[in-house]
Amino acid sequence: MVTDVVESVESVESVESVESRVPRYRRLRDDLSGVLAAGEFAPGDLLPSEADLAARFGASRVTVRRALGMLKDAGLVGSRQGFGWFVAGAPMQQSLGVLAPIDEQIASAGRRPGRRLLSFRFRAAPPAVEATLGAASVLEISRLNLADDEPVGRNTAWVPDDLARGLSLDDVERESLHHLLPAELGSATQRISAEGASPTDAELLQVPVGTPLLSFVRTTRDVSGRAVLASEAVYNPLRTEFTTELTPAHST
Question: Is the dihedral of CA 8, 12, 17, 21 positive or negative?
Answer without folding.
Answer: positive
